[in-house]
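Weekly modeling sync, notes
Attendees: S.R. (lead), two postdocs, one rotation student

Agenda item 3: backlog of single-chain predictions. S.R. asked that every request posted to the team notebook include the full sequence so nobody has to chase files. The rotation student volunteered to paste the first one in as an example of the format we agreed on. Action items at the bottom.

Example entry:
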Amino acid sequence: MNYFFITLFYSGLSPKASGTVGTIVSLPLGMLILMYFGSQTLFLATALISIIAIKSINKYEKRTGIHDDKRIVIDELAGMWFALSIAPAVMIGMDDITALENGFLIQSLLSFALFRYFDIAKPSIIGRIDREVKGGLGVMGDDIIAGFAAGISSALIWQGLLKLQTLV
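Predicted structure, as returned to the notebook:
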């Protein structure tokens, strides 16, 4: 069960780009939670999952001796869900998912792209956490910070686009 959890339903077993596959699996799940339960629920669920994941990853690393195994993608879920809980923090119905004026779909996809960028490029503190923090906290920490950075960046870009639209 632990392996099923940390590999995010075995999506981390993808032979190529397991992190991207894990993020792709996380995106629609997070969007559904956001649509039906709201951003606070998504944020709190992500925090709980992150705490459980840190403990699970510590157990896995102790058993295998492998730090930050590429098959572990629960950290991608945490980062993506934190980004979603910040950026498109609107509760909408299924009918409104493609309505461009509410920004839900645009911000969700922008959050995805920005999260992958921050997770791969690892600028600033994200890279420092990745290099220096050991155990489950290190595995989860860089993605959590990347998720926050992606969510904030996505929200700022969306707000900037709205401001530009009112000026034109």
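Discussion: group reviewed the output briefly. The chain has a mean pLDDT of 91.
Action items: rotation student to repeat for the remaining queue; S.R. to check formatting next week.
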